[in-house]
Write a structure and sequence with these properties.
The protein has helices at 48-58, 62-71; strands at 22-27, 34-37. It is of the alpha+beta class. The longest helix is centred in the C-terminal third of the chain and has 11 residues, at 48-58. The chain is globular, with a radius of gyration of 14 Å. The termini are far apart. The protein binds zinc ion.
Length: 79
């Protein structure tokens, strides 16, 4: 466990936001650009792409990335 080779830059993070809501255009909490997309977990204006990029940037390990993806993906069946 001394060599960490599990991080793979360029490997895309893909969030499942099919259950996400939309609303009036509002500034994205990450980039400030207008978006109608709402984070289905935090209920704030946020581009899906920005959230995916944020996770890519902030996850230090594959396990951490998986945890962040899970944390930002709504539970199945929840409306
Ligand atoms: Zn954005």
């Amino acid at each position: 466990m001394s060599h960490a080779t599990s991080t793979t830059p360029g490997s895309p993070v893909v969030l499942d936001w099919r259950h996400g809501q939309i609303g009036p255009p509002a500034p994205c909490v990450l980039c400030g650009g207008l978006t109608v997309c709402r984070s289905p977990v935090k209920d704030v204006p946020c581009h899906k792409g920005c959230a995916e990029a944020w996770i890519t940037t902030h996850a230090s390990t594959d396990a951490d990335r998986a945890r962040l993806i899970a944390a930002h993906t709504p539970a199945k069946g929840v409306t």
